[in-house]
Design brief:
- It comes from Metasolibacillus meyeri.
- This is Class I SAM-dependent methyltransferase.
- With 248 residues, the chain is of the alpha/beta class.
- It has a domain at 4-141 and 198-218 and 240-247: Vaccinia Virus protein VP39 (Rossmann fold, 3-Layer(aba) Sandwich).
- The protein contains seven helices and 13 strands.
- It has helices spanning 4-20, 24-38, 54-61, 73-82, 117-130, 144-149, 199-208, and strands spanning 44-48, 65-70, 87-91, 103-108, 131-142, 154-155, 163-170, 175-182, 185-195, 211-218, 221-223, 228-230, 240-247.
């Protein structure tokens, strides 16, 4: 877990200017998708690993009371510059942070899998405690089969940067590897390593945390042979899928 701060800080520095130019409409659509996936009214939100806070801010603009937890100081400071007054941003580690409040909705997008299985189970149990009795959590899970088949594929996160990212897969530990570097600084590489779980594996883990999976939402997949992206791919072939969980 020691790689996290360094990787996400440098990813932020690599992409800061590009993300700032993403149209607000993109984040509005993501917030609307979350609202639709929840499927019922909700008022309070906790986001884990909020990054620059774009989606959390859009939920706040929809009138939700949002608390966002982010590990990296630079990301937290950036988010505070643009956040709505209904959004609270805390710099901290959600594996250890003390939060007594319960929430109607918890979201953890594009990041689940830091550490080993024991860490994930401990986090799921914390998520259980943070949910209100009728609350839901939306969590993105990386799918191992996709990452197994894109081993050593390279791409640029955006066409406007000189950043390269290379995908990898740790077969023994079933972990996706995502390595970033600047074209002109090839010796300075930063890698995130996140545990991947099949739908069946994450179901069993949620059961141990006394959580029930209500729905699986497949995300997209990149076809590197044709360089085309499909917005929604089959569950066992997508980059990641989203689970909607509640207390059992």
């Amino acid at each position: 877990m020691q790689w996290t701060n360094q990787f996400y800080k440098n990813q932020f520095l690599f992409l800061k200017s590009s993300v700032e130019n993403i149209p607000t409409a993109y984040f509005e659509r993501e917030a609307q998708k979350i609202t639709e996936q929840v499927g019922r009214p909700f008022e309070t939100v906790l986001e884990l690993g909020a990054g620059m806070g774009n989606i959390a801010n859009q939920l706040a603009l929809l009138g939700k009371e949002v608390m966002a937890i982010e590990l990296v100081k630079e990301l937290t400071e950036h988010a505070k510059k643009y956040c709505d007054e209904k959004m609270t941003i805390i710099c901290g580690d959600f594996y250890t942070i003390n939060i007594e409040q319960q929430f109607d909705l918890l979201i953890y997008l594009d990041g689940f899998g830091v550490g080993n299985d024991e860490n994930q189970l401990r986090l799921l149990k914390r998520i259980y405690n943070w949910l209100s009795d009728d609350g839901y959590a939306l969590i993105d899970i990386y799918e191992p089969n996709y990452w197994r088949h894109v081993y050593k594929e390279e791409m640029r996160p955006t066409e406007y940067t000189k950043i390269i990212r290379q995908y990898g897969f740790d077969e023994e530990n079933s972990r996706m590897l995502d390595t970033w570097w600047h074209m002109e600084e090839k010796n300075d590489k930063y890698t995130q390593s996140l545990a991947c779980y099949t739908a069946e594996e994450i179901y069993d883990m949620c059961q141990q945390a006394n959580l029930e999976i209500v729905t699986y939402y497949p995300n997209g997949a990149m076809n590197f042979k044709t360089w085309t992206y499909c917005d929604i791919a089959p569950l066992h072939h997508c980059i990641s899928y989203r689970i909607k969980v509640r207390k059992k």
